[in-house]
Amino acid sequence: MADTPNAAGEAAAPGMPQLDVSTFENQIFWLLIALLAIYFVLSRVALPRIAGILAERQGTITNDIAAAEDLKAKALDAEAAYDKALADARAEAQRISGETKAAIQADLDVAIEKADAEIAAKAAESEKAIAEIRAGAQEAIKEVAKDTAKEIVAHLGGKADARSITAAVTSRMKG
Amino acid sequence: MADDAKGGGGLSFKPMDQFQVKPLFGDYGDPIHWYTITNVTLWLGLAILAVIALMVLTTSKRDVVPGRGQSIAELMYGFVYKMVEDVTGKDGIKYFPYIMTLFMFILCANFLGLIPMSFTTTSHIAVTAILGFGVFFAVTILGFVKNGASFLGLFWVSSAPLPLRPVLAIIEIISYFVRPVSHSIRLAGNMMAGHAVLKVFAGFAQVAAIAPVAIIGVMAIYGLEVLVSAIQAYVFTILTCVYLKDALHPHH
Predict the structure, then answer these.
(1) Confidence of residue A4 (pLDDT cuts 50, 70, 90)
(2) Distance (Å, rounded) from C-alpha B87 to C-alpha B241?
(3) How far apart are CA B218 and CA B222, in angstroms?
(4) How many whole angstroms separate alpha carbon A54 and alpha carbon B31?
């Protein structure tokens, strides 16, 4: 091989094969073909496909986010409905408890009134009895005082006038 | 191969042999025509297959919840798409497929080049110059088509003081025309240098005494090269975006 020198072999041997001009045509020819092939593969197949994949993914993400937002709104609605139901129930309970309280109060008032009336009646009765007893006692005292006064007057030698004694006793007892 | 005879028993470093363009069918040294199927053809073809595997096969299921492969494809897409959008603005989005083509090709070619015994297509200046000058001409023509003569406003820094503007214009023009050169040499140089260093370390591994150090060195450089492969693809792409932005919005 060394015996058959040619342009390619001899020019390359001492220096850089990169500077061997005789191979340039070949390299450039195949390079242009390779670049064209890669360009067509990329621009016709790979790049549109990847762009499509990315757009589709973006769409999916957007849809999913919208769906999530939708569900969140629904959850918020449900929470509002729950809160409303809770407030309603609480108001209802308050109402029922108020009514019950009022009914109990009314019953209680009636009972208290009844008891008050009974007490008042009993008190009046007792008062009456006491008054009677007191009146009875006064009468008894009057009688005793009259008798005593008559006896005392008789004992002292006088003759007691029944009417004047009664007047005197009555005036004293008043005084 | 001639060195084998001359070198005798000593160390043989052939760090540049990995970059040789050879016909796939036939012997090294056979004439290479433009249509010859070479190792360049093979590894460019593998790069196409890698792009298809990475971007097409992984996304065939079109899952809404992506699997591992589809995540990678979407990550690549999102990464470059966001880069184009951030750097060039909304009106640069329609050039996204071209920029994605550049990025995927360079990334796959760089990583395929890291397979041992492989051929790194992006380490050749012929390849990166086509990429770099392709971007340069596309962007320049686009700039004139979109903006007409006002595209030249790119070189006239209206925010600078008037006496400075001609000087700045000369600097801007020079830097503009150096762009494709630096753009292509950066990529080829990075790939070539890294692979050559790997080979040099591998050559040292022939000596038993320093073999462990050399192998650790190979591992370390290989790790660095993985990083460089991704970074150079990124750098090439983002610079393309920056140039495109200049074409779309030439006024500073």
Answers:
(1) very low
(2) 6
(3) 6
(4) 49
Query: Are residues B77 and A15, on separate chains, in Cβ contact within 8 Å?
Result: no
Give chain B's length: 252
Residue B220 exposed, middle or buried by CB count within 10 Å (0-12, 13-18, 19+): exposed
How far is it, in rounded angstroms, from Cα B110 to Cα B120?
7
**pLDDT tens per residue across span B10-60:** 567 778 888 888 888 877 777 888 888 899 999 999 999 999 999 999 998
Instruction: Tell me if chain B has a CB within 8 Å of the CB of A124.
Output: no
Would you give the DSSP letter of residue A1?
-
How far off is chain B from A74, nearest CA to CA, in Å?
27
* Residue A26 to residue B196: CA distance in whole angstroms: 23
- Residue range B208-227, pLDDT digits in tens: 888 899 999 999 999 999 99
The distance of B164 to chain A (nearest Cα, Å) reads 40
Beta-carbon count within 10 A of A64 CB: 10
ipTM value, please give it.
0.88
Question: What is the pTM assigned to this prediction?
Answer: 0.73
Are B40 and A38 an interchain contact pair (Cβ–Cβ within 8 Å)? no
Q: State the average pLDDT over residues A57-84.
A: 95
Dmax of chain A from CA atoms? Answer: 203
Q: What's the pLDDT tens digit per position in B60-84?
A: 888 888 889 999 999 999 999 999 9
**Cβ-contact B113, B122 below 8 angstroms:** yes
At residue B234 the predicted structure's pLDDT band, cuts being 50, 70 and 90, is: very high
Lowest mean pLDDT among A21-25, A47-51, A164-168: A164-168
- State residue B11's pLDDT score: 66
**CA-CA distance, B55 to A40, in Å (whole number)?**
12
Do the Cβ atoms of B103 and B233 come closer than 8 Å? yes
Q: What angle do CA B244, B109, B239 make, to 5 degrees?
A: 20
Residues in chain A: 175
Name the DSSP class of B156.
S
Bridge partner list, B23: B38
> DSSP labels for A37-59?
HHHHIIIIIIHHHHHHHHHHHHH
Dihedrals phi, psi of A146, to nearest 5 degrees: -60, -50
